Amino acid sequence: MNGRIRGTIGTGHIARVLAALAVGLAAGCATASGNSTAGRAASETSAYPWPLKPFNRPHPVRAVVGDPRTTFLHPLRGDALAGSGLFSFHDGVDIDAPNGTRVYSVVSGTVRSVTQESVVVEASDGRAFVYMHIVPAARAGQIVTAQTTVLGRVENWALELHFSEVSASGLITNPLLPGHLAPYRDTTKPIVAALVLRTHGSDTTVRPFEVRGRVDVIADAYDLPELPAKQGFATTHFEHDRFGVAPAALKWSLSTLEGRTVVRTVTAVDFRSGLPTGSLWSVYARGTYQNRAPIVPRYHKRATRARSVRRSRSETTTRGCNSDCACNLVSHAAALRRAARVN
Fold first, then answer.
1. For residue range 10-49, what is the model confidence (pLDDT) as tens digits?
2. Is the CB of residue 253 less than 8 Å from the CB of residue 110?
3. Residue 53 in contact with residue 154, Cβ under 8 Å?
4. Residue 174 near residue 340 (C-beta atoms within 8 A)
5. What is the pTM of this model?
6. Which domain, by its residues, includes 333?
7. Which of 23, 35, 58, 191 is most buried, most CB within 10 Å of its CB?
8. Torsion angle, CA of 101/305/271/167, rounded to 10 degrees?
9. Which residue, of 129, 145, 173, is where some domain finishes?
10. Looking at residue 17, what is its pLDDT?
11. In this structure, is residue 39 part of a structural domain?
């Protein structure tokens, strides 16, 4: 997956634009390796286990909160990625699991709803947990016990369990935050691969030394799931795809090559605090599509290693630059699974 920050730059000629990855985490992060820290350990004392056996071992996560979900229905001028359709943010995590795998409740509580492929369990504190892509075995109103009650079995073509957490107030909660799904380990580093400049409001690419007026800056950014390892339990062949996932947070800043700050660090999106209230296109730029997206066959051809193309956006102007000014645009990305551990 390639994530892309989009910022609008104007007022002057930018001689050079550079991207740099902040490989460390946001301020307050105790470790860059994803190993447990004192703060992490303390938060996990109240965490809940995995909904699959073994409960106390991390399972492969193939999709995360904030990933784009795209169904392109009507191409625009022959381009499916520019057309209309159904678009939304992924509201949970997809856990790799073979069909037939038993799914257990992560907390004790009451089954509030059952559909043809999902079960929703409400805990005593009002939180709700959603288990999807399963053949339900529970019934509405049933009292369930954590790590004991079988809610159903995984059954879907993607060989995964979709798991979501909803707060008592009805807001999506990132299950990978401290104090939630545990144990979990992440050692991969987020990547900001490149920047692309476009004329503001269009898909016309602009060369860095020809920038004038307002332009959109698209920053490729993504994170990769953990490398497959011998788990000691059954996984699927999809685990080896390692399609890119959304960074937890995308931030950017603008400065001259001499180091003078033009625009201080701006947060384009931060999925650690939940899902944005706007539409998918308020965060991602056009051209974004999900992995294995339901669109025309070209969908896997836009990125190497079958990563989806993702773009996040924000806007600013370079009022601090003049025609003789060279500016440095710095894009900061924190991996979703990693940055979710920042307290």
1. 433 232 233 332 222 222 222 222 333 334 444 444 799 9
2. no
3. no
4. yes
5. 0.75
6. 5-30+186-339
7. 191
8. -10
9. 173
10. 32
11. no
Output the six-digit token pair for 243.
């399609």
In terms of domains, do 110 and 68 share one? yes
Q: Which of 173, 196, 219 delimits the end of a domain?
A: 173
> Token digits for 334?
């924190």
Judge if 140 and 194 occupy the same domain: no
Structure tokens belonging to residue 132? 């999807």
- Pair 25, 86 in one domain: no
193 band by pLDDT with thresholds 50, 70 and 90: confident
CA distance 114 to 118: 6
The pLDDT tens digits of the residues spanning 130-172 come to: 999 999 999 999 999 999 999 999 999 999 999 999 999 999 9
165 beta partners: 129, 173
Q: In this structure, are 10 and 94 located in the same domain?
A: no
Domain count, the chain: 2
The mean pLDDT of the chain is: 74
Amino acid at 18: L
Residue 218 per-residue DSSP state: E
